[in-house]
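Consider the tokenized backbone below.
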């Protein structure tokens, strides 16, 4: 068995006029990783290195006991509701979203649904290209993509929940995100469900 032809989808960080550095750094694990990543990682790495204006490209795990894989990602488009839960039963009602500027998607609730967890689960089941979860008793919807072309837009529906309308876009701001190595799922989704406090995290950071 042989693999198919390898083609380049995207090359990141190459510049013939700039050197590429690879430094191994250590830091204490956090017990409250915010959803989808820790912000300010580029500035934190630059400060630790005594440098300014670095372009952080990637990080690679090289030690530490928890089963995780770090990666550098840009901010995804996301939004949250302001509904007070438990809410009225949303059975048979709809939520409408656009993901990354695509066509409108309609999620129809089936069955008794009055909690934030049940709403998020229903949205997860019916929405393509995005995921829904609960943080501090509120429903969040987040694009699976990252960066300025990533976006989530709530466009209405017959539901009785409260989501702000308008496009919520991602940014080029970089975050450090931890993923489970077993299945690639978010290890710090929700309200910091992965507790790395007390663990030493070692990673090689690639930057220019």
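A designed sequence for it:
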């Amino acid at each position: 068995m042989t693999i198919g032809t390898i083609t380049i989808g995207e090359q990141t960080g190459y510049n013939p006029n700039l050197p590429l550095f690879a430094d191994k750094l250590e830091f204490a694990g956090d017990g409250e990783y915010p959803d989808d990543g820790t912000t300010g990682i580029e500035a934190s790495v630059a400060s630790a290195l005594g440098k300014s204006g670095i372009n952080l490209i990637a990080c690679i795990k090289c030690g530490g006991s928890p089963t995780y894989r770090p990666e550098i990602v840009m901010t995804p488009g996301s939004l949250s509701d302001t509904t007070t839960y438990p809410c009225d039963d949303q059975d048979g009602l709809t939520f409408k979203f656009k993901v990354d500027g695509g066509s409108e998607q309609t999620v129809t609730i089936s069955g008794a649904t009055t909690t934030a967890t049940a709403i998020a689960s229903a949205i997860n089941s019916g929405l393509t290209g995005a995921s829904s979860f609960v943080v501090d008793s509120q429903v969040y919807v987040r694009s699976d993509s990252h960066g300025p072309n990533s976006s989530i837009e709530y466009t209405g529906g017959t539901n009785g929940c409260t989501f702000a309308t308008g496009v919520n876009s991602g940014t080029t701001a970089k975050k450090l995100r931890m993923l489970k190595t077993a299945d690639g799922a978010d290890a710090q989704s929700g309200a910091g469900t992965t507790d790395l406090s007390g663990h030493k995290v070692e990673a090689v950071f690639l930057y220019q």
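The first helix runs from residue 41 to 49.
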